[in-house]
Specification:
Elements lengths: L12 H10 L3 H16 L8 H4 L14 E2 L11 H28 L8 H27 L9 E2 L2 H6 L5 H29 L3 H32 L3 H12 L10 H6 L4 H9 L3
Parallel strand pairs: 1-2
Helix pairs in contact: 1-2, 1-4, 2-5, 4-5, 5-8, 7-8, 7-9, 9-11
The structure holds fe (ii) ion (2 copies).
Length: 278
């Protein structure tokens, strides 16, 4: 049952972030993300400080369903038909829900690092867009007589982030420049597939997501380079070091080199990592 949500305006941006992450009801989480973003862009909200506005949650709030499984325990996804379509959209909705929490974590957790206001402008915009993506996929599920929570979902994304909670550059490297960049590789073929199956509504959702995600990766690359500049390090080797330390999967080709480069993630970052895997 969706509970009554209280989308009260937070006292500061940094105070709003943990409220969004902690919300277990998804409509409350989305409403809080909308409210906080709008108030921020009206310039009615101070940034705040992590020491005054409280710690970030260790884990995000989640509804009772879906059941969260280890990635290896996830059932194989059926292909084709309405069931396959629902399974795909359900898994994407789950990724977007995690993206909401991960983005607001990026806003709240590192607020003692003296970052310019434009850092918050970029990530608040992303935090709003991820909430929109989740809502859009929820609506698409409803059109197919399904709902978020009907199927199990995997529990790996938040953990991937936890290990970089101490280091903003590492966090940007893993979440934006590895995981979100992967979205740029796999989304265009998904759009094609949906179109070829005549599922134009899903294709439309994916096109919106793809367009926005290119910007998210671009913000990731921009702020990663900014941090490298601040400490006088070259971005490519630093990125590669973070990936080797904090990312256990492989960087798998084929890469969407064009979209990645347009986002500022040039092949010098990721090609050396792909080629060493045997
Ligand atoms: Fe997204
Ligand atoms: Fe994103």
């Amino acid at each position: 049952m969706p509970q009554e949500f209280d989308a009260a305006t937070p006292v500061t941006l940094v105070a709003g972030a943990p409220q969004i992450i902690a919300a277990s009801d998804t409509s409350q989480k989305v409403a809080l993300a909308y409210k906080t973003s709008r108030t921020w862009f009206k310039r009615d909200l101070a940034i705040g400080s992590p020491s005054l506005d409280g710690p970030m949650p260790e884990r995000p709030g989640r509804p009772d369903k879906p059941k969260l499984l280890a990635p290896r325990d996830m059932p194989k996804r059926a292909l084709g038909g309405v069931q396959g379509r629902v399974a795909l959209i359900h898994s994407l909705a789950h990724i977007e829900l995690n993206a909401v929490d991960l983005t607001w974590d990026l806003i709240g957790r590192f607020a003692d690092r003296k970052l310019p206001r434009s850092y918050y402008d970029d990530w608040v915009r992303v935090g709003l867009e991820e909430a929109k993506h989740f809502s859009m996929l929820e609506d698409r599920l409803a059109q197919l007589d399904a709902a978020y929570g009907d199927l199990p979902a995997h529990d790996g994304l938040w953990q991937a982030a936890q290990e970089t909670g101490h280091d903003l550059a590492a966090r940007l490297a893993i979440i934006l420049l590895v995981l979100e960049a992967r979205g740029l590789d796999i989304t265009p073929p998904m759009i094609e597939k949906a179109r070829s199956l005549g599922d134009l509504d899903t294709a439309k959702c994916l096109e919106i997501i793809y367009r926005d995600e290119k910007n998210h990766v671009a913000f990731g690359a921009k702020w990663f380079r900014y941090l490298c500049d601040r400490i006088g390090k070259r971005p490519e080797p630093l990125f590669q070091g973070y990936v080797r330390t904090h990312f256990r999967g492989q960087l798998k080709p084929p890469f969407n080199d064009r979209a990645r480069s347009e986002a500022g993630l040039t092949p010098g970052f990721y090609k050396p990592l792909a080629s060493i895997k045997g």
